[in-house]
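Input chain follows. Return structure tokens only.
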Amino acid sequence: SVVIQECHVQNTAREYAKLYAAEAEPLEGFGEVPEIIPIFLIHRPANNIPYATVEEELVGEFVKYSVKDGKEVNFLRRDSEAGQKCCTFQHWVYEKTNGNLLVTDLQGVGMKLTDVGIATLAKGYKGFKGNCSFSFIEQFRALHQCNEYCEMLGLKSLRTTHQKQRKATSTKSKNLPNSSTVKKMVPKKARDPRDFVSSEH
């Protein structure tokens, strides 16, 4: 059911947010870290709608810090501390999951977020499939602009890595046997149960 999936998505995103907080909070000058509030599933067997969700009520101005299609320019996202930290959170998750997963629809009151989404590649990531299209990952990669919080966490700019990949693939495509072996390796790699923290760090 949609309700169960919603719960699963938000609570999965919440686990990533906790890991992000554990890494960001000790950094000097980082300050408060956005938190995704927990959402609970309740079963009401006697009711017409047997499943419902319960979560803390957020009181205050509700702001969308990231937008599903990524094209909408949201000044609160760009100019507010919470908005910038949400963009950094997206970048952090993207890098930690090797570009396989992105938390989308970051919205809420101040640093408390709810109703988030997750986009994954078609295969999913570690047995988890998101509820948003893969195109959000591509748009994020194209549109994300790093801010001071990305720098504090030492995240790599997506622009330079994207250009490097483009160059690398164009040189490989000249050499046919090479490009076919590369293609064979990619699905294998994706199926490997990878450690959550990439070994490069």
